[in-house]
Each structure stands twice: as structure tokens, then as C-alpha cells.
Design brief:
Layout lengths: L2 H16 L4 E7 L13 E6 L3 H10 L5 E7 L3 H11 L4 E3 L2 H5 L6 E4 L6 H10 L3 E4 L9 H12 L3 E3 L7 H11 L6 E9 L22 H5 L9 H5 L10 H18 L6 E7 L12 E8 L3 E8 L7 E8 L2 E5 L3 E6 L15 H14 L11 E7 L6 H15 L7 H20 L3 E4 L4 E3 L1
Parallel strand pairs: 1-15, 2-3, 2-5, 3-4, 5-6, 6-7, 8-11
Antiparallel strand pairs: 8-12, 9-10, 9-16, 10-11, 12-13, 13-14, 14-15, 16-17
Helix pairs in contact: 5-6, 6-13, 7-10, 10-13
This protein binds nicotinamide-adenine-dinucleotide.
């Protein structure tokens, strides 16, 4: 333990004691993986859908050694212009993603379009021989999952889904802790993602020049119902089910990816969700409050919550509860808290006669000799913290590009992606039907 760690440990222990809680606390820094070595060959990358996430993804992707951005497709001219500002005038730009797929120099594509385009572009790209990094949620509707899995299989292309937490050193540590029995037998996972702002509720800024001239409206709509140009639909598409997958596909999916990665589960067998549009009644048809309950055969239940009007701090996190403790995941840490169950079951005898109380007490003490004369043992608390500035998306792209080179499986393939997104979308189905929805997590099919 270095001096800094020791000081942290000491201060945590003191703080806990000041609150009157007996705790043995330990804060342990996690180590980021070594940076990948520069490769001799270069992977030529294209971005399809150069919006908020597409640009963010690409900024990260090109930091991985041996990766170069060569082309960008987007339906809004302003984002094509900004792509040139970011990555140079010599990149190829187009409104039509198919023009990217015919370019021989492109090895791999990032798909950062709205959800309703993921499947079509991913399948087209794989058929054109490109490897794909497809943003989450992998699908817009359940029927699309098998098509994407099949396309990845038959074309033998690499497909990585973009729930980057699956590559996080925090989640890797959490998986290891659970497997080592750190919290005993898992019985429940509670996760939430609460927000309290206009941006958090998807009201992204519409550029001042948004018009049918600067936006390729028909191409944006794709398979969605044809309606006249609407800048809000174009730039705030998450608010409408025609393009997005609601809170479930946007945020629950991350919580499913995390839970499935950590537990190794294929997914839930039953889902029940409820919620509503409580605050952001601005013409959207997607809910801003969502609660979901899910049964897992492995013997635990998952409870998820998203609230876009939480009246306070924005926060996200997961808590895994087991027979011997709890494990909590926050934005840059995983912690384990253990208070072992007392072997002595205790007594509830105050209503019996004095004589009977004495007899029971004597017998009890004989059966359970006093273990801790100075009081119950202190709770154990360990916190594993990611280094400052750690970015799981960098590790997720490193994993993707390593697979592009080695042709070995990625950490989040189409099957994993469908199991996470398919599970998340059960929430929307449950609300639509007003009923519990059954799912076969192995066959990845809705069950009757
Ligand atoms: N992994 C994460 O943490 C994370 C975070 C945010 C968003 N996302 C995902 O990324 C995707 C994009 O989200 P965003 O917030 O960047 O949206 P955005 O609206 O900012 O960007 C989407 C872009 O796609 C373009 N587009 C639409 N149809 C297209 C088509 N047919 N061809 C080419 N371009 C097209 C639009 O013009 C727009 O610029 C979503 O699926 C979202 O769920 C993932």
C-alpha cells in the first residue's frame, strides 16, 4: 500500500468511526490496462451518423494506435462540415452511407445513427465486407436481433455493440468480486439512472439552419412513418418511438449489459414494467419515468428505474445484494460492503415468564457461546477506484480493433447485444400490453 492509499484508508476509517459505525475501510486504486502497441497496419475507419455519440466515439477510436478516420456519412450538412473541421479536409463525406460501403479503403464503420437505422446499416455494412462498431441499443425492435446475428455469422464480420461499460476495469473487477463470493449468493440487483435537466431529458439543441435543405429528411426517416420535415424529430429523435426505443433502449440497456456481463447471465425470463410521461409533456410519445422488474433463473431479481424528473442530483448506479454483503457500482468505482450474518440467531423471549426466560437464556448461551464479548464484528468495506481520467470507451474500442486484426471474438458481440437490448425492450412491450412478458433468454425469443 503506498502512502496516498494509506492516507485514504486512514481517513475513511476515521470518518466511519466519527459516525459511530465500526468499519474496516479500504480504498484500492484499480490499474488501467496497458495501452495497445502501435500496429504496422492501419485500420481505415468510417463514421456513419456523426452526431453527439458518433463524434465522441470517433474522437476516442482514432486515439487507438493504428486507426485512421477516412470517411463520414451523415444526414445533416452541419455535422459533415464539423467532421472536416475535426478530422481534416481530405476525409470523404456524404449524406448516403451506401457510398461509404462501396469504398474499398474502408475496413470498419462506427454506426452512430438513431436506433431505427442500426440494423439496416449494420447488415448492409457487414454484407459489404466491413467490420462494425454499432452503438447501443443494438436493435429498434425484437425482430431485428436475429437478422443482425445471422448477418455477422454468415459474413464472418466482427460486430461490437457499443455498451462500453462491458470493457470497463470497474465492471471487470465487479465480475471478479462476485465470482469470488465477495457478497455470497446474489439475490437481487437494483439499478437506476436518474436525471433532472432538459438535456438529460433529450431536449438537445436544434441548430439554427435546420431545414429540408440542410437535413436529408427522407434518409433520416428511413423505415419510419412519412411525415413532413420536423427539426425536433430530426435532432431530438429519442422522444419518439418511431426512431428511438425510449428510456428502455437508451438507458436500461446499459444496466442490462452491465448486469449480464457481471453475472454471466443470458437474461431474464419474465419482465414487468410500468411508468408514464410525468413531466416532459412537450409532444413526445416516450415516457420519462420507467420502472422495470425482471426474473432471472440464476436466482435473483433485477429492479430498474429511470426518472427524468428526480427533483435533485442526477445519478446512476447498480447495487448487487447477496447473502453476505452488497456490491455497489458508481461512475468510477466498485465497492463491497460485508456484514456477515451472526451465527447466533438471537432470542425473542420478553413475553414469557421470568423463569422461562432464564431457562431459555441459559440453554441458548450453552448452545451459542458468546463470540464477540466486545460487540458485533466491524463491517468490512472495500472500494476499488478507477484512475483519474479513465475511459472505458477507449478500452471498448481497443477491444474492437484488436478483434478486427485478430478475428477473435469481441467482448460484446451481436448475441450479447441482442440479449441486452432484447431484455430492455421487454419493458416497452410490457407497458404496451399491460402485462407480464415472458422471454427465453437462451433462444432469445419472446415466450408465450
Ligand atoms: N454508448 C453510449 O454511451 C451512448 C451514448 C449516447 C448515444 N448512444 C447511441 O448512439 C446513437 C446516436 O445517438 P446520438 O445522441 O449521437 O444522436 P444524434 O442525433 O446526435 O446523432 C445521430 C446522427 O445520425 C444521423 N443520421 C440519421 N440517419 C442517418 C442515416 N440513415 N445515415 C447516416 N446518418 C444518419 C443524423 O443526421 C445525426 O447527425 C444512438 O443509437 C444512441 O443510443 C450511445
Amino acid at each position: 500500500m503506498d502512502r496516498r492509499t494509506f492516507l485514504k484508508v486512514a481517513s475513511t476509517a476515521t470518518a466511519a468511526t466519527a459516525l459511530g459505525v465500526k468499519t474496516h475501510a479500504l480504498e484500492i486504486p484499480l490499474r488501467a490496462p496497458a495501452a495497445p502497441v502501435a500496429a504496422n497496419d492501419q485500420i481505415q475507419l468510417a463514421l456513419i451518423g456523426a452526431g453527439i455519440q458518433g463524434q465522441g466515439d470517433t474522437r476516442t477510436a482514432v486515439q487507438v494506435p493504428g486507426v485512421k478516420l477516412v470517411a463520414v456519412a451523415d444526414c445533416y450538412d452541419g455535422r459533415l462540415d464539423h467532421s472536416k473541421e475535426l478530422w481534416g479536409n481530405d476525409i470523404f463525406i456524404t449524406r448516403d452511407y451506401k457510398e461509404i460501403l462501396t469504398r474499398k479503403e474502408v475496413d470498419a464503420v462506427i454506426i452512430g445513427t438513431p436506433d431505427h437505422w442500426h440494423k439496416q446499416i449494420a447488415v448492409d455494412a457487414m454484407k459489404a465486407g466491413k467490420d462494425v462498431y454499432c452503438e447501443k441499443p443494438m436493435i429498434h425492435a425484437h425482430a431485428e436481433g436475429p437478422d443482425m446475428i445471422e448477418a455477422a455469422r454468415t459474413t464472418n464480420r466482427i460486430l461490437q455493440v457499443g455498451s462500453q461499460r462491458v470493457s470497463s476495469i470497474i465492471y471487470v473487477k465487479a465480475k471478479e468480486l462476485l465470482a469470488s463470493g465477495a457478497i455470497g449468493q446474489l439475490n437481487m440487483v437494483n439499478a437506476h439512472w436518474d436525471r433532472n435537466s432538459a438535456m438529460g431529458a433529450w431536449n438537445y439543441t436544434v441548430p439554427l439552419d435546420a431545414s429540408p435543405e440542410t437535413c436529408d429528411w427522407d434518409r433520416f426517416l428511413g423505415s419510419a412513418p412519412k411525415i413532413p420535415f420536423n427539426a425536433e424529430h430530426f435532432f431530438q429523435w429519442r422522444k419518439w418511438k418511431a426512431y428511438g426505443t425510449g428510456v428502455a433502449g437508451d438507458l436500461f440497456v446499459h444496466l442490462f449489459s452491465g448486469t449480464h456481463f457481471i453475472t454471466g447471465s443470458n437474461g431474464p425470463t419474465r419482465a414487468m414494467a410500468t411508468g408514464g410521461l410525468r413531466f416532459w409533456k412537450d409532444g413526445r410519445d416516450a415516457n420519462d419515468v420507467l420502472l422495470g422488474l425482471f426474473d432471472y433463473r440464476e436466482g435473483f431479481n433485477l429492479a430498474l428505474r429511470v426518472n427524468f424528473v428526480d427533483g435533485g442530483e442526477e445519478s446512476e448506479g447498480l447495487v448487487f445484494t447477496g447473502s453476505e454483503g452488497t456490491m455497489e457500482i458508481g461512475y468510477n468505482y466498485v465497492s463491497v460492503s460485508r456484514t456477515p450474518l451472526e451465527k447466533d440467531p438471537g432470542l425473542m423471549i420478553g413475553t414469557y415468564s421470568e423463569a422461562m426466560q432464564k431457562r431459555i437464556r441459559d440453554a441458548h448461551r450453552e448452545k451459542y457461546p458468546q463470540q464477540h464479548p466486545s460487540g458485533p464484528p466491524a463491517a468490512q468495506y472495500e472500494k476499488y477506484v478507477a484512475p483519474e481520467g479513465y475511459r472505458d470507451s477507449y478500452d471498448h474500442f481497443t477491444n474492437f480493433f484488436a478483434s478486427v486484426r485478430s478475428r477473435q471474438p469481441v467482448v460484446e458481440d451481436a448475441v450479447f447485444g441482442y440479449r441486452a437490448a432484447g431484455a430492455a425492450l421487454l419493458s416497452n412491450l410490457s407497458i404496451e400490453r399491460g402485462a407480464v412478458v415472458k422471454w427465453d433468454p437462451d433462444a432469445m425469443k419472446l415466450a408465450s
